[in-house]
Amino acid sequence: MLVVRCVRIDDVDPLFQLIQKSEYGLTTLKISKDKLQERIEQSLFAFSQTKARPSGQPYVFVMEDMTNGKIVGTVAIYSKVGGYEPFYSYEIKKTLHESVELGIRKEIDVLHLRVEHNGPTEIGSLFLSPDYWGGGHGRLLSMSRFLFMAEFPSRFEQEVVAEMRGVVHADGRSPLWSAIGSHFFQIEFPKAETLSSESKKFIADLMPKHPIYIPLLSEEAQAVIGRVHPNTEPALAMLKKEGFEFRQLVDIFDGGPTMHCDFKKVRAIRESRRLRIKDIMKVVDGPELLLSNADLDYRSCLGKIIVDESGATIDQVTALQLELRVGDDLRCVELKPKSIHSENHHDQNESNEGFQNDK
Prior knowledge:
Blueprint: E1 2-6, H1 12-19, H2 33-48, E2 58-65, E3 70-78, E4 82-99, E5 104-118, E6 121-128, H3 137-151, E7 159-163, H4 175-179, H5 181-185, H6 189-198, H7 201-206, E8 212-213, H8 219-224, H9 233-241, E9 245-250, E10 257-262, H10 267-271, E11 273-281, E12 288-293, E13 299-308, E14 311-315, H11 316-322, E15 329-333, H12 338-341, H13 348-352
């Protein structure tokens, strides 16, 4: 059984080994072991607070294979972006160019640098070990964070964003970075990616402030603006089905799209239910849903459940993994939107591709 839970301090070593497998473009995972430990310590403090407002604290989760105790995935929620270190992105806007004399009227796409100091909640740092790709494991890892958000809404902003991994080649070359950033920073994309995860001051110092006309860029750079890496396409499709949409913001380094959704409109948050456990049985013949406890010591997994007017019944294994007893509350939601369940074909993209997606 796979369980998504809060990160612990003793997860530092196995989690660091896991994220070494991540590819270029996953900015928040390109960090040193010391930085990872610092993030985990910040996360532990966030989880320990009985009451908290969104102020930038990270909530880090890991996926553990309970059959062997191995950490096989990770995901995080950043309660707020901006503030001391601004949130940078390019906004794609159209400008009108017109000549009456020549009879020419044309709209040109332009990149405008956007600096956000009072930003939304961000979901990110999602990575699943390639050994566990397929079988809906990536969806389980991604969706689990929404049940936590649904249980503790006051800890998050009313808007949620996800920076999706853009097009970066296997050798670490980013077409957009080559066309823009490399001329101002004079470093390769992998180095810039690492630096941006530790400090964003160099962005403020060197990033061009004036609008950039997209048609002046190379065709290769133009082609990747707003596009995701092939391994990220299943995750992008999944977020769209959860209610996320593209609002013309892209990453300043690789051009990947930033997806937005109002907190209350995220499907998994909106449809989730909190129920009281009335019984725990050895075997439960009910639908399999995404289940979680209702505690800050958060745990989530797939489990079968029967719901009636008097409460919920779950099986013993699920109760053990979620550390639940009769009388405790749990939260549940369908793992996939009902429209996906109604499809007769299997989602091949999700099954065959990995989950290396939101930054």
